[in-house]
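Exercise 7.
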Amino acid sequence: MGKRLIPQRRGRGSPHYRSPSHRHVDDVRIPHYDHTQGIIKDLIQAPGRTSPLAVIDFNGRKSYQLAVEGTRVGQKITIGGNKVEPGSILPLSAVPEGTLVHNIEGQPGDGGKFAKTAGTSALVISRGKVVVLNMPSGTMKEFNPACRAVVGVVAGGGRVDKPFGKAGKNYLTLRSRSVANKKTKGVAMNAVDHPNGGGSHPHVGGPNCHGRTAPPGQKAGFIAPKKKVKKR
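Solution. The predicted structure, written as tokens, is:
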């Protein structure tokens, strides 16, 4: 009897891949109030996240934000204005070129979508009708100048420098983020277990490209790959 593919298990909500939301501290969104000043009350560990969180008090309103390298308890954090310092929340139109930012909004007011992993940041390249950022992946991406971002680098960047030491620690760490720590190649499986399985030796044996609209059971290999050669 065959077993379910990983995309199928993810799609149907298997407990192995279900995010432990009851352990998450907060969704971490940039507050909607503007021209406000807050104070960092505490730095806490957040299960399921790679970076610590900063507990900020904005005039009696508590907010959880990603901790920024160089910030400390008792430091003042401003939203809006023109003060560019680690932890400040500003629209991209007010951030000078060459500044590192994180937790960047994809659309104005969505609370932040990009560069939220520990040790990551994006670099402001140019400003104008659109703001161009050099993303952590190395690609250039355009943003609306009204999109907000947090100045600085996400804290916890040295987390990968210390080895785990044993497989159990790696398993528990990835489990807190609902990530499997072991994965078997499809070509190493039997034909009944995977579309790429079977054969006298590990090989796909046919096309391994599938459309984006294919059902989860067929999505094994390259999903909607783009052509490498430009049309003339």
